[in-house]
Write a structure and sequence with these properties.
Radius of gyration of chain A: 21 Å
Number of helices of chain A: 10
CATH architecture of chain A: 3-Layer(aba) Sandwich
Number of domains of chain A: 1
Strand order of the largest sheet of chain A: 6-7-8-3-9-10-12-11
CATH superfamily of chain A: P-loop containing nucleotide triphosphate hydrolases
Oligomer: heterodimer
Radius of gyration of chain B: 24 Å
Helix content of chain B: over 70%
Shape of chain B: flat
Distance between the termini of chain B: 8 Å
Largest interface: A-B, 28 and 22 residues
Mean pLDDT of chain A: 88
Largest sheet of chain A: 8 strands, mixed
Shape of chain A: globular
Largest sheet of chain B: none
């Protein structure tokens, strides 16, 4: 797809989410925890953007901040021309018809006191109060069938379903309004591998059918590779690398991306053993007290003095082709690939 | 659900039997008897009285006689109010206690749940602290302090409401006792409600409701309230049973002809049957309201199964 020709439906600019955290007991001072710090990206209609990173890197925070489920500290989220972050609460609420989310913990995300039919119907009834009961029921049954559940199940309660079925309900609930964008916040990380594939394929099938855009958040590289058109690698709340999927997986430029890919298991024991490892040492540093300069330098084999000076900005890798859409935040990205 | 309720009611019989047994022998352990008066009565009259009321029989025989009568719904005659049976006394006082207590508990639910929800929605705000401050005070002040204070200020000084008396059940006479009865419950329920509401509001499915684009009011009413009410409901069972059987203190202070006063008077007068009658009545109500709470739980939480 030629990105320049199509207007993005969502533009995120310099989005930041800081949580005040009290450090040092009762009389400590407040310090900002920069969960998301200056993230920018676009999403085209019908596109899937994968967001990957380690636990605690701000993936979920980013996804929720885009939908204003948690307040952003700074930045813009421009949806079809309006900055969502400055809208009046009621105007924002109306936009949610087009902006939905699938949550990580499928069972906890469903109200245990509502039948599945009511859960899926609720968005419909909220945004289309004029619809008759029969029409609502018909659409709910259609949607429930579309996500692969039997329509007879709509009178049951969430706790009577398995995790995978609950996530299908979550998808049905998000899809019933035919939204234009769905944020999938680790939708499969709580599920068995076989169920993961079913949910991923369901999301892809629904995307093909309705042409919606997806923000797919995951820590699982192979899942992200399967579903995404473009991939954004997040490290400590900042964009490390952003590139079209095939470009990123063929030519990862950021040492962090390379380390992540090296850490992903290969389902062949012989090749797994032979794999050169760019080992990622230790845990990410605390986002409360990030290193100066490039936040990755404390774990980076390529780190030099320049890395401690200032956070590297996003650079575009090449003038044309896929490289023109490939952005990386590293002083040393030209130094070649470590394990290619 | 009906089979469950019936099973529970049958299960209550041994509970009540144990209650009756303990109460029966405990009150007999207390020194003195119903016919010990300050004025000495002639020995033969006393013996006569005791024979009529079977007090001359061995204790265990009296117990059997009482339980047998009780099983047929007969609470026996009162020893002190000689023209009345215990049943008549209880049914005479209960409607009064029920009316005052019922209104008080409804008031407590409405105001307590409302205040608690409000405090939870504005967590850690000035409103929250104010409500919780009042609630703490309301719990801390006993009703034998609160009731005279209310009487003094509203009844005696401001002369807005009658300071006491029943007035045949006039609305003006009911206001002060109802308020005095409801206040500590309002305080307690609002604290319970705030706590559970704060927790529920943090749960994932509330986030889902917001993400759906549901207006905040509906998010609270449809999703949060039912879950947050659970702890309040379990508190309400015993609280309701207690409040509608009459508060000893409140009924004494305002001079209300409910059954609360029989709790104390019966015990002081060694009016054995009256005390036992009130105890059994209270026990039955406790059992009933706890059953009601468990059934309500099923309505509020579909995960509850009756089998």
């Amino acid at each position: 797809m030629s990105a320049s020709a199509i207007q993005p439906i969502l533009r995120v600019r310099d989005l930041a989410v800081h949580f005040p955290v009290r450090v040092g007991g009762l009389f400590g001072r407040w310090k900002p925890l920069k969960a998301v710090d200056g993230v920018s990206f676009d999403i085209m209609a019908g596109e899937t953007l994968g967001i990957v990173g380690e636990s605690g890197c701000g993936k979920s925070t980013l996804g929720r901040a885009v939908l204003r489920l948690i307040p952003a500290t700074a930045g813009q989220v421009v949806w079809l021309g309006d900055d969502l972050l400055t809208l009046e609460p009621d105007d924002m609420r109306r936009r949610r018809r087009d902006l939905q989310i699938v949550f990580q913990d499928p069972l906890a995300a469903l109200d245990p006191r509502m039948t599945v039919g009511d859960i899926v119907a609720e968005p419909l009834v909220t945004f289309h109060p004029d619809l008759g009961g029969d029409e609502v029921r018909r659409r709910v049954r259609d949607m429930v069938a579309k996500v692969g559940l039997s329509p007879e199940m709509i009178n049951r309660y969430p706790h009577e379903f398995s995790g995978g079925q609950c996530q299908r309900i979550g998808v049905a609930r998000a899809m019933i309004l035919r939204p234009k964008l769905i944020v999938c916040d680790e939708p499969v990380s709580a599920l068995d591998v076989s169920i993961q594939a079913q949910i991923i394929n369901l999301l892809m099938a629904l995307q093909r059918e309705f042409g919606l855009s997806l923000i797919f958040i995951s820590h699982n590289l192979s899942v992200v590779r399967h579903i995404s058109h473009r991939v954004l690698v997040l490290y400590l709340g900042r964009v490390a690398e952003l590139a079209p999927r095939d470009e990123l997986f063929a030519r990862p430029r950021h040492p962090y991306t390379q380390a992540l890919m090296a850490a992903a298991p290969v389902p062949d024991p012989r090749r797994e053993r032979q794999k050169l490892r760019a080992r990622l040492e230790g845990d990410p540093p605390s986002p409360l007290d990030p290193p100066s300069g490039c936040t990755f330098r404390t774990r980076c084999a390529r780190a030099t003095e320049v890395c401690a000076t200032a956070m590297p900005g996003l650079e575009t890798v090449g003038p044309d082709g896929a490289a023109a859409q490939h952005h990386v935040a590293c002083y040393h990205w030209r130094d070649g690939f470590r394990n290619k | 659900m009906l089979t469950y309720a019936i099973k529970r009611l049958f299960g209550a019989i041994p509970t009540l039997l144990i209650l009756v047994t303990i109460a029966f022998f405990l009150i007999r352990l207390a020194p003195g008897g119903p016919f010990d008066d300050e004025r000495e009565i002639p020995a033969e009259i006393k013996a006569n009285l005791e024979r009529v009321y079977h007090l001359d029989e061995p204790l265990i025989q009296q117990f059997g006689r009482y339980v047998l009568a009780l099983a047929q719904g007969d609470f026996g005659p009162s020893f002190k109010y000689k023209d009345y049976t215990v049943t008549e006394l209880i049914w005479g006082g209960f409607p009064v206690s029920l009316r005052i207590g019922g209104i008080a508990i409804l008031l407590a639910i409405a105001i307590g749940a409302g205040l608690g929800t409000l405090a939870a929605l504005r967590q850690n705000s000035r409103l929250d602290y104010t409500v919780m401050g009042f609630a703490m005070t309301g719990i801390a002040i006993p009703n034998f302090v609160m009731a005279p204070l209310l009487t003094l200020v509203l009844g005696v000084h401001l002369k807005l409401l009658p300071a006491g008396g029943w007035g045949g059940g006039a609305v003006r006479n009911m206001i002060l006792p109802i308020v005095a009865l409801a206040l500590p419950h309002i305080a307690y329920i609002s604290r319970l409600m705030r706590g559970s509401m704060v927790e529920v509001l943090r749960s994932n499915y509330i986030r889902t409701a917001r993400a759906k684009g549901l207006p905040e009011r509906l998010t609270i009413l449809r999703h949060a309230l039912r879950a947050a009410l659970l702890p309040v409901v379990s508190y309400l069972g015993p609280a309701t049973a207690g409040i509608i059987t009459g508060s000893v203190v409140i009924e004494q202070i305002f001079g209300i002809p409910g059954i609360g006063r029989y709790f104390v008077q019966g015990a002081l007068n060694r009016d054995y049957t009256l005390v036992l009658g009130v105890v059994v009545f209270y026990g039955v109500l406790i059992v009933l309201f706890n059953l009601l709470v468990d059934l309500l739980y099923g309505l509020l939480d579909p995960k509850v199964r009756y089998d």
